[in-house]
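thought: user wants a sequence for this fold. calling inverse folding tool.
action: design(structure=
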């Protein structure tokens, strides 16, 4: 009898424990990593060049994102970024504006309003289409100086990238860095100086226009900037949203240069690994790794994993409409498997953070 009671009790305890585990753990932090122009072949080129090893392979769930723009079968990075940032398909070239030219609110803006810390990191000008889609609103991605002006009043906690000239050497002679300083920002020009103002919002420009490519000596800027950003953002008890872009995978595709693609891909992959590591030590962190589109129509027609050699063939110098992979890791990663429109990424991320509605 006593034994039976014990068994019943332990069963009860076990059942309670199990059902407890079925309840969803809250998601506090989202790390969104966008490899611009990164299709499955770009990933596999990196995998082969790295002799059969990628941090990305630690991903727990994989999905596919359909990338077409509202007005075009083949998206650009404006419409592609806007879809992910705002949940709406728009015309090519637009930055967080709908097809009628009305501003669309972005997940970064919603996160900021909800008291989360927010950040943007990229290996292009911070005003370039992908990061711009999260913070600016413009009919044209090429209005860089107007896009820079949208950083004023955004409240973004941290941004790191190129594009200093769009803030400081403008046609209207206004120095936006001084305006940001008046808002309480620290504006710095190298990664090391970010640590000097830990309590303040910070902008870091490492280039007048775009940071160098890996081949031209960008070195470990992106993984380093990512670690600095995650460290900084983790201080916010309300959680954070950060978008980190490997911008130049795309440029390697446009240049039809397989070595350019591979070097940028491996730099991005190292960054992904650090984001996964962060999720390991910070429960409640969801990491999403995806692309806005594929670039170059890259196919791999030969290679050797043991030697790390890749023979790539580009079928175009432009973007292609193929689905791009979505890799996820950490809390809530399971909600991103399947095949869906790029706009669903916004819906899923908003839901994960409990924002909107
Ligand atoms: Mg981009
Ligand atoms: Zn492109």
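)
observation: tool returned 357 residues.
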């Amino acid at each position: 009898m006593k034994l039976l009671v014990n068994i019943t009790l332990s069963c009860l305890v076990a059942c309670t424990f199990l059902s407890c585990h079925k309840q969803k753990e809250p998601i506090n932090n989202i790390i969104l990593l966008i490899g611009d122009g990164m299709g499955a072949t770009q990933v596999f080129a990196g995998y082969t060049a790295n002799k059969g090893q990628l941090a990305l392979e630690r991903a727990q769930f994989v999905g596919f994102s359909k990338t077409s723009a509202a007005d075009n079968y083949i998206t650009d990075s404006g419409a592609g970024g806007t879809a992910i940032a705002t949940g709406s398909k728009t015309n090519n070239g637009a930055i967080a504006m709908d097809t009628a030219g009305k501003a669309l609110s972005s997940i970064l803006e919603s996160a900021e309003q909800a008291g989360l810390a927010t950040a943007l990191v990229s290996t292009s000008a911070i005003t370039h289409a992908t990061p711009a889609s999260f913070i600016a609103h413009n009919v044209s991605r090429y209005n860089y100086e107007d896009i820079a002006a949208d950083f004023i009043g955004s409240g973004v906690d941290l941004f790191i990238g190129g594009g200093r000239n769009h803030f400081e050497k403008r046609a209207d002679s206004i120095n936006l860095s001084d305006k940001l300083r008046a808002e309480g920002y620290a504006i710095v020009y190298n990664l090391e100086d970010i640590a000097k103002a830990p309590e303040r919002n910070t902008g870091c420009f490492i280039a007048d226009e775009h940071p160098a490519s890996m081949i031209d000596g960008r070195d470990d800027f992106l993984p380093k900037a990512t670690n600095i950003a995650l460290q900084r953002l983790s201080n916010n008890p309300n959680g954070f949203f950060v978008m980190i872009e490997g911008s130049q995978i795309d440029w390697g595709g446009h240049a039809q240069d397989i070595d350019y693609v591979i070097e940028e891909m491996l730099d991005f992959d190292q960054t992904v690994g650090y984001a996964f590591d962060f999720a390991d030590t910070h429960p409640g962190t969801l990491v999403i790794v995806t692309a806005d589109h594929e670039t170059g129509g890259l196919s791999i027609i030969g290679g050797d994993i043991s030697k790390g050699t890749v023979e790539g063939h580009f079928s175009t110098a432009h973007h292609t409409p193929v689905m791009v992979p979505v890799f996820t890791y950490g809390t809530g990663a399971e909600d991103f498997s399947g095949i869906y429109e790029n706009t669903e990424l916004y819906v899923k991320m908003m839901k994960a953070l409990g924002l909107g509605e």
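thought: summarizing for user.
answer: Here is the designed sequence. The chain has one domain: 26-352.
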